[in-house]
C-alpha cells in the first residue's frame, strides 16, 4: 500500500511538472510573438511603399546542389533586385550559410543577382549569416550597416525586422508571399517559425555572439560608394 501511495505521488508530481513546463513554453512563445510583432509594427512595407534605405539585406535560404537558389531564395533576390533597380536601395548585402565548402548560399545569391543585372560592385557578401540573428548582428558589427531594408518571406519578416532593430539597425522589411504556391514547404516553414521565435528571444536575452565575428569589413561601404 505504501509503495502505491508513493507511486501515485510521484505520478502526480510528474504530471504537474509536465504541465508547468508546457505552460512556461506557451508563455515564452506568446511573449516572443508579442515582442516580434511589437518591434516590427510600422516597419513592414510593400515593395512600392517601402522607404528608401542605403542597403537591402537579403537573408539566405536553401540552395540546390547545382548552385541555383530555391524558389524561396530566388523570390527574395528578385525583390532586392527590383529595389535596386527602382533606386530604393543603393547596395545589396547577401547573408547566408557557407559553413561547408560545397554549400554556398551567399555565393549563389551573388551569382544570381549579377546574372539578373545587378552590378557586382553593388553587392556585399556575408559568408557567415548562419541564422537571422547572426545576419543582423554581423550586419551591424562587422559590416557597419546602420539602416537597411531586410528582405525575406512574409512568415519570417516580423522576426527578421525585430532582430535587426534590436541590434540597432534602423530596419524596414519587405516580404514575399509568391511562393505560397508551394503549399507544403510554406506550411512547414510557418510551423518552424514558432520555434525560431523562441530561439530569437533566447538570443536577444543572452546577447550571444554570432558563430563568427572577426574584423570590420568594408565591402558594404565600397558597394555604397561604387559609381
Automatic annotation (TrEMBL):
The keyword Transmembrane helix is annotated on this UniProt entry: yes
GO cellular component, one term: plasma membrane
Ranges that cross the membrane: 15-36
Domain DUF218: 55-171
Domain of life: Bacteria
InterPro entries with a match to the protein in the record: Cell_Envelope_Assoc, DUF218
Keywords annotated in UniProt: Membrane, Transmembrane, Transmembrane helix
Record-given protein name: Protein SanA, affects membrane permeability for vancomycin
Amino acid at each position: 500500500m505504501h509503495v502505491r501511495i508513493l507511486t501515485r505521488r510521484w505520478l502526480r508530481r510528474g504530471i504537474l511538472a509536465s504541465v508547468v513546463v508546457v505552460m512556461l513554453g506557451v508563455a515564452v512563445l506568446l511573449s516572443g510573438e508579442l515582442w516580434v510583432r511589437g518591434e516590427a509594427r510600422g516597419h513592414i512595407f510593400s515593395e512600392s511603399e517601402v522607404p528608401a534605405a542605403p542597403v537591402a539585406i537579403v537573408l539566405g535560404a536553401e540552395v540546390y546542389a547545382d548552385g541555383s537558389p530555391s524558389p524561396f531564395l530566388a523570390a527574395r533576390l528578385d525583390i532586392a533586385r527590383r529595389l535596386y533597380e527602382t533606386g530604393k536601395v543603393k547596395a545589396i548585402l547577401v547573408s547566408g550559410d557557407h559553413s561547408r565548402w560545397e554549400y554556398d548560399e551567399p555565393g549563389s545569391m551573388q551569382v544570381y543577382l549579377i546574372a539578373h543585372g545587378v552590378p557586382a560592385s553593388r553587392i556585399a557578401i556575408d559568408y557567415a549569416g548562419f541564422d537571422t540573428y547572426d545576419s543582423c548582428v554581423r550586419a551591424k558589427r562587422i559590416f557597419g550597416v546602420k539602416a537597411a531594408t531586410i528582405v525575406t518571406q512574409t512568415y519570417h519578416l516580423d522576426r527578421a525586422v525585430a532582430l535587426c532593430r534590436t541590434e540597432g539597425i534602423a530596419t524596414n522589411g519587405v516580404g514575399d508571399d509568391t511562393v505560397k504556391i508551394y503549399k507544403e514547404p510554406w506550411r512547414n516553414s510557418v510551423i518552424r517559425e514558432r520555434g525560431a521565435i523562441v530561439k530569437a528571444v533566447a538570443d536577444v536575452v543572452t546577447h550571444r555572439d554570432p558563430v563568427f565575428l572577426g574584423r570590420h569589413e568594408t565591402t558594404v561601404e565600397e558597394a555604397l560608394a561604387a559609381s
